[in-house]
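Protein: Curved DNA-binding protein CbpA
Species: Rhizobium mongolense
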Amino acid sequence: MRLDSKYFDRIRTRRKREQETEQAPPTCQWDGCDKKGVHRAPVGRNAEGQFFLFCFEHVKEYNKGYNYFSGLSDGEIARYQKEAVTGHRPTWTVGVNKAAKDSPLHSDIRSGAYSRVRDPFGFVSGAKGSGPRFPEQRKLKSLEAKAFDTMGLQASATSSEIKTRYKELVKKHHPDANGGDRGSEERFRAVIQAYQLLKQNGFC
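Structure follows.
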C-alpha cells in the first residue's frame, strides 16, 4: 500500500488515555511506623481472608508471635485437628444408613442375582416404602445352566440346596469311595468345577 493512499485519511486513532495517578502504597499498620506496608499478615482465626499490612521488619516481628490456635483449649485444638482430616465436613459411622444394611453383598450384585430397583410404592416387594431388595430371576448363561445340570439341580435352587447337593456328590464320587474308578473321578472333577462356577457367580 502506498503512503499517500486515500485509506490513510480514514484511519482514526484513539487518544492515549491519561495515565491514572498511581496511588501510593499504604503505610505500615504497626504502631508508630510510617514505612510502606506492602507485606500481608493474617488477622486471626475468626477473620479468614483479612490481612494486616506491615513493612518487612514488622511483618517478621508479627509472624514470630502469631499463633492460629491462641485462646483455644487443648481439647478444642485436638478436635480441630481431627476435623481437618476430613476437610471439616460432616461424617457418619459405618452402618448408619439402613438401606445399606438391607442391601445384598457386592458379589451378589455383580452376578446379577439382585436388582437395585427403587420401589417406593411397593409394587414389586408388596410393601410400601423402601425395604430389602429381593432376588430377581435372570436368564442363565450357558455355563451356569450346564453347572446346574451337572449337579442335578433346578435353576431356582437356593444356596443351601446347592451346598448340600455338592457335599452329597463329592462323597459319592470321591476316588477313595469308588476304588479309583476313572469314570467316577471325571464326574468328581466335573462336580467341583460346576460348584466353583456357581459360587463365583453368586449362586451360593
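Remarks: Residues 142-201 form a domain with the Helix Hairpins fold (CATH 1.10.287.110).
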